[in-house]
Design brief:
Layout: H1 13-37, H2 76-80, E1 82-91, E2 94-104, E3 110-120, E4 126-134, E5 146-149, E6 152-156, E7 163-173
Length: 175
């Protein structure tokens, strides 16, 4: 008596079909997920970054100094000489500027200044710009001196804000 010959193993074509479908679905998901998370080079909804020559005034979306090109108008050189430092914190739906300190680094006495606080999203695009007049209790602010400011609100917090930057964008020299 002999052992019957071994039957060839049946291929489970259904299992291979399921694996093929799962791989195709995984590849489709990966491809479409990658397309959504990568930003194209010429995305019209994102502002273009224009390289600036050395020493050029900052542009509006540059978090280094708020304000438009050539902030300060006719007093741009005086604006560039002003220094502002503060901490910005959320407070009851507003951007609250705390520990504000303005230093007059120019050689001219300054009567008043305009502080701009810009709110940026994660891509450093400007979401909101709020301006506040800085008035002094004992004007003018003479060269080399500083003025400090208690907490004050600088605009409502907008949706999607990631960071805030404040800076002096205009000054009025003393007569």
């Amino acid at each position: 008596m002999g052992v019957p010959p071994a039957q060839p193993q049946k291929k489970n074509s259904m299992m291979w079909g399921v694996i093929a479908i799962a791989l195709a679905a995984g590849g489709w998901y990966y491809y479409h997920n990658q397309q959504q998370t990568q930003t194209p080079a010429n995305n019209p909804t994102q502002p273009a970054t224009v390289p600036q020559p050395a020493g050029a005034p900052p542009q509006p979306a540059t978090p280094v100094q708020p304000g438009g090109p050539g902030p300060g108008g006719p007093n741009a050189a005086l604006v560039q000489a002003q220094q502002w430092s503060s901490q910005e914190e959320p407070a009851n739906g507003y951007v609250q500027v705390q520990s504000g300190k303005w230093v007059n680094g120019s050689n001219v006495s300054i009567q008043s200044a305009v502080l701009e606080c810009d709110q940026y999203n994660a891509n450093q695009a400007v979401l909101a710009q709020n301006q506040t007049n800085l008035t002094l209790s004992n004007p003018p602010l003479v060269p080399g001196n500083n003025a400090t400011f208690g907490p004050f609100n600088a605009g409502q917090i907008v949706q999607g804000v990631n960071s805030v930057n404040c800076g002096i964008i205009a000054v009025t020299p003393a007569n």
